[in-house]
Amino acid sequence: MPLRAKVASSVSRTAAALSRAAGRGDGSVIGGWIGLKIDPDLLAHLSSGRAIALVSGTNGKTTTTRLTAAAMQVLGPVATNSFGANMPTGHTSALAKAGATPYAVLEVDEHYLAQVIDATEPRVVALLNLSRDQLDRAKEVAMMAQLWRTALAAHPDVLVVANADDPMVVWAAEGSTHITWFSAGQRWHDDSWVCPECGSPIERRDAQWWCTGCPLRRPQPQWTVEDDGVVDPTGAWHLVKLQLPGTVNIGNAATALAVAAQFGVRPLEAVPRLATVSSVAGRYAQVDRDGRNIRLLLAKNPASWLEAFDMAEEAPTLLSINARDPDGLDTSWLFDVDFAPLRGRQVFITGDRAYDLAVRLEVNDVPFRHVSTFEEAVRAAPPGRLEVIANYTAFQDIRAELDRVN
Ligand SMILES: [Zn+2]
After folding, report:
1. CATH of domain 3-274
2. Is the CB of residue 315 less than 8 Å from the CB of residue 294?
3. CB-based contacts of 375: which residues, under 8 Å, 6+ apart?
């Protein structure tokens, strides 16, 4: 690395360490920010010489990044931004902290994908899904897909690993030269009923989908989920035992195996590594308190709520909603979520915007009880499993009450 980049990298590590020592979080944003101020090309310098995979999409990217990094460790040390700091400051900090590793797996905010591809020149880019998120500031889904499509067209050597079940992802990826398709499912269809190519309606039957006005249709995936396992491109089925719940995570595992395979990792070697992941920055963590087994699930937009309902057991459930800056300030998306799967469960609600949620549940015919604190919910729930589903800052608040459980 040039001298300036070495200095920037060293200062970045020190700033991150100071931030951690001062109890101001994990330091991954401030460290990267200072490093990039000293050397604006620091991310490119830190990326050079590494084989890199980028993972992007609206949902599941933190978990998929974690699983992919675990799979890639078959090959040796892997740098990764495992705390979800998924913008260039976080990438810079993660690579500076890791030192010289041959591999890196980076989660990338979907808005920054083009910029991060330019800076890191990745070998692989994995595209998971696109759906509505943070209505007051995120781009429209079709605009995101167009940004991705343009970014990939400018980098024809990138190996694209993409979800065949999401029409927006397929359209974003289809112009690439090297594509591996996986099938990780798509529960949320309401952002892809209209073809991004021609504007005609998209029709669906079972797993298939196709545009009624142009040739865009679901490609044949090489990696698929079958029962509780993953089928690889040779047709071999691998049982995938995870500590993470739900078929959603088997889909994330299929994606991780497909990405790792681009680097030469065989599924047989990678699968046991996936089982070592027990939680991801607090997601899926389980804590026992006062006879309650509390499990934390993060849900931050309509598609991820559908996934959370799939993962949660039929047990008493606490829902917590905030609308602070990282969550987005507009809670009208609550009306896009069908909360009917919660009928029949004991439901508690809390958080800054619990009353917005209350109105939604009332309309949705889901009985609930409002509690003013997390502690009150724990006391009110019967002994046994308590599922907690919360959006971003609400999740972090509850995680803090549980001593920042990982
Ligand atoms: Zn079309």
Report:
1. 3.40.1190.10
2. no
3. 401
Active site members: 330
- The amino acid that residue 349 corresponds to is I
Residues annotated as binding site?
Answer: 195, 198, 211, 214
pLDDT tens per residue across span 110-128: 999 999 999 999 999 999 9
Residues 290-348 have pLDDT tens digits of 999 999 999 989 999 988 998 999 999 999 999 999 888 889 999 999 999 999 999 99
Q: How far is the CA of 71 from the centre of ligand 1 (A)?
A: 36
**Rg of the Cα trace of the chain?**
21
Are 316 and 292 contacting, i.e. CB atoms less than 8 angstroms apart?
no
**Secondary structure (DSSP) of 277-314:** ---BTTBT-EEEETTEEEEEEE--SHHHHHHHHHHS-S
Give the residue numbers of the binding site for Zn(2+): 195, 198, 211, 214
Quote the ligand 1 centre to 111 CA distance (angstroms): 24
Q: Distance, CA 167 to ligand 1 centroid (Å)? A: 10
Going from N- to C-terminal start, the domains of the chain cover 3-274, 286-401
Structure tokens at 363: 């309309």
Among 61, 101, 103, smallest CA distance to 83 is for 61
Superfamily of domain 286-401: Mur ligase, C-terminal domain (3.90.190.20)
